[in-house]
Amino acid sequence: MKVQDFFSEGLRLVKPEYWTIFFNYIIYVLLMIVASITIIGLLIVPALYMGFVKFILRAARGEQVDIGDSMSWGFQDGTRWFDSLYFTLLLMFGIGIGFILLLIPGFYLWVVWTLGIYLFVDKDLKPIEALSRSRELVHEVGFWKVFLVVFSLSLGANLISLIPYLGFLAVFFLTPVLFMIYISIYEHAIKGNSESIDADYPIKKNTESIDADFQED
Fold first, then answer.
1. Could you give the angle at the alpha carbon of 150 between the alpha carbons of 91 and 95, nearest 5°?
2. What is d(CA 28, CA 44) in angstroms, rounded to the nearest whole number?
3. What is the mean pLDDT of each run of 10 residues along the chain (217 residues)?
4. How many angstroms separate the CA atoms of 118 and 183, rounded?
5. Distance (Å, whole) CA 77 – CA 81
6. Are the CB atoms for 91 and 85 separated by under 8 Å?
7. For the packed helices 167-191 and 45-60, what is the interaxial angle rounded to 10 degrees?
């Protein structure tokens, strides 16, 4: 896929469930704000966010989703909330230290770890394994392709947010689209040579699925 294809694919994926994604995003944001009031609450914010990522993946694949969907996902299986916290801290400190030491390592980790959160949620990988696999997939897709998409989304959102009065609101309404563009990169990465991602998630002929790799591991 070309860089522009990730944007068009993200737009296509978001259309069927835009308002469900939008209202779910509001609910999750409010919950995370409330949870952040206390130190103990801060510890569960990553688990709440992982639940939202799970919801986004399901919506992208055409599964039945509702308001409040997947809210409890990050708290299942006993240690999932802890793994979510560990993953978040590892991601933040890794990229943060990379930027503090030198800009180049920070930018590199920011890009190659882009898919880590989706692998962590979708494939149920451990944090370090998810980030390591993310780096491999980003290089398979094309580092500079992913960099251009990630950088464009970040720069675009920041520029739009600078518009007086309406900027922040515009970014808020664009957020479901931004999430689906990232999902389009992820789905393309795990499908190998697929040129497009169908909402009903079929496996095309001659497409190598990453699931086999995880089973072998």
1. 25
2. 12
3. 92 93 92 90 91 93 82 83 93 90 86 96 94 96 95 94 90 95 96 52 38 48
4. 8
5. 9
6. no
7. 70
